[in-house]
Write a structure and sequence with these properties.
Blueprint: H1 2-15, H2 23-41, H3 48-77, H4 81-86, H5 91-106, H6 108-121, H7 130-150, H8 152-157, H9 161-167, H10 170-175, H11 190-193, H12 197-208, H13 217-249
Helix pairs in contact: 1-5, 2-3, 2-6, 3-5, 3-6, 3-7, 3-9, 3-12, 5-7, 7-12, 7-13, 12-13
InterPro entries: ABC2_TM, ABC2_TM_bact-type, ABC_2_transport, Nod_factor_ABC_transporter
Domain ABC transmembrane type-2: 15-242
GO cellular component, one term: ATP-binding cassette (ABC) transporter complex
Length: 255
């Protein structure tokens, strides 16, 4: 298992040398400029660090979803998806290794956002709870990799992963609290945000930027980890059922 995971990480690392795979990182400075400018020019420069967090969350989500879908589409287009499915290596573990690599690289967007906000608007992002901040980022990366891997089954079954990628982009920018904090959304939408781990992560990261104590931090971290694990468990089960179907019908490339 460790060998399979390591091989998947190494292979995805080679793939990430192409600029097309790093498009989310290219767009991050633009998202940062837009979100921070809104805060500064509306007279709420004190909220500008939260805009930096929002731009980072957008980049991490976009990169994970786009690349996890492209993993399946690229293998299908190159005619290697059938061979990958027929090998003894679990497809879910291979996808997890590749999405983990993508997620770790996507965290560079935080550095980009902080630098752009500082150079363009003079915004300084102060982290008052460094340990909790690091733990939140680590658990968010793990949960993101698990969630992206869980979607692999849907992408295998679809003729084109791009359809699902587009549908999962902008709605989640809002539901994750990246653009607007979840408590400010309409009341009927707020329960939906509670089952999205990114909304918990985003709130925790914002709290780490405040000088006061962070309420219920361990429990909130546990929720992030739990939602990510739940997505992975459901995703592995769904992927196994889908693979049984496509192996039976022989319709991997034309699912």
């Amino acid at each position: 298992m460790i060998t399979v995971f390591g091989a998947a990480v190494w292979f995805q690392g080679l793939q990430m040398r192409r600029i097309a795979n790093l498009s989310a990182l290219v767009a991050t400075p633009l998202f940062t400029l837009a979100l921070v400018a809104i805060m500064v020019h509306s007279g709420r420069a004190d909220l500008a660090p939260y805009a930096v967090v929002g731009a980072t969350v957008i980049a991490v989500w976009q990169m994970a979803i786009n690349e996890s879908g492209d993993i399946i589409d690229a293998d299908r287009g190159q005619g290697t998806l059938e061979a990958l499915i027929s090998t003894p290596a679990p497809l879910s573990l291979v996808v997890l290794g590749r999405t983990t690599t993508i997620t770790v690289i996507s965290l560079l967007s935080l550095v980009e956002s902080v630098v752009v906000a500082r150079l363009t608007f003079g915004v300084v992002v102060d982290v008052h709870h460094v340990g909790l901040f690091a733990a939140t980022l680590a658990l968010t990366a793990v949960a993101m990799a698990m969630t992206a891997s869980a979607l692999a089954g849907v992408f295998v079954l679809s003729r084109s992963a791009r359809t699902f990628q587009n549908a999962l982009s902008y709605p989640f920018y809002l539901l994750s609290g990246a653009v607007v904090p979840a408590p400010l959304l309409p009341e009927w939408l707020q329960p939906i945000t509670k089952v999205i781990f990114l909304s918990w992560s985003t709130d925790l990261i914002r709290d780490c930027l405040r000088p006061g104590a962070v309420p219920n931090a361990p429990a909130r971290l546990a929720v992030v980890a739990g939602l990510g694990l739940a997505a992975m468990v459901v995703g592995v089960w769904v992927l196994r059922r889908i693979l049984q179907r496509v192996r039976t019908t022989g319709a991997v490339s034309f699912a």
